[in-house]
Amino acid sequence: SLTKVFEQEYTGPIYSEGVHLVDGDGNRVTTEALDYGEGMTVYPATHPGIAKAPTVLVRYEESEYGGETRMDSVVEGYAAYSKVCTHAGCMVGGENENPLVCPCHFGKYDPTQGAAVVGGPPPRPLPQLPITQTESGELIAIGDFEAPVGAGGG
Ligand code: FES
Fold first, then answer.
1. Of 35, 51, 104, 109, which has the fewest beta carbons less than 10 angstroms from its beta carbon?
2. CA of 89 to the centre of ligand 1 (A)
């Protein structure tokens, strides 16, 4: 559709303060969404169709996080990272596992260590998304990703 074409060319912010994280059906994601050790793909409610929108949401015990993880961007054990591989822009998978794995050249990222690269060719971590929750437990962004999304820019 024309909307899809437009959104693919969108170059503005991906998330901004207060933007809800939504699932693939557009439903707001809450702190009830995942058990510990689980993950899912989410999107910014404002621009779910843009190429750089897909976001990995994971949940681990807060004691399991370390490394470069921004702990002020972790809420109720939830951390969010760009799903767009920093090597050549494929979508990483394996949200329910550690590491996250990119199917294109098997780049691997540890979601408990700030999505640090633990295998393969990616040159830098997946950018973390700063998140918090509303009074009713809905997950929202505090701002945009903390580094450029996708290949290049790093
Ligand atoms: Fe992900 Fe190459 S695009 S490892």
1. 35
2. 6
Instruction: Tell me the per-residue pLDDT of 6-46, one tens digit each, with 9 for 90 and over.
Output: 676 788 899 999 999 999 999 999 999 999 999 999 999 99
Query: Hey, what amino acid is at 138?
Result: E
Instruction: Write down the pTM of the prediction.
Output: 0.94
Find the residues whose C-beta lies inside 6 A of ligand 1. 85, 87-88, 90, 102, 104-105, 107, 120-122
58 with 74: CB under 8 angstroms?
A: no
Rounded to whole angstroms, how far apart are CA atoms 137 and 114? 23
User: Tell me, what's the ipTM?
Assistant: 0.99
Element spanning 8, H or E: helix 2-8
Rg (CA), the chain: 14
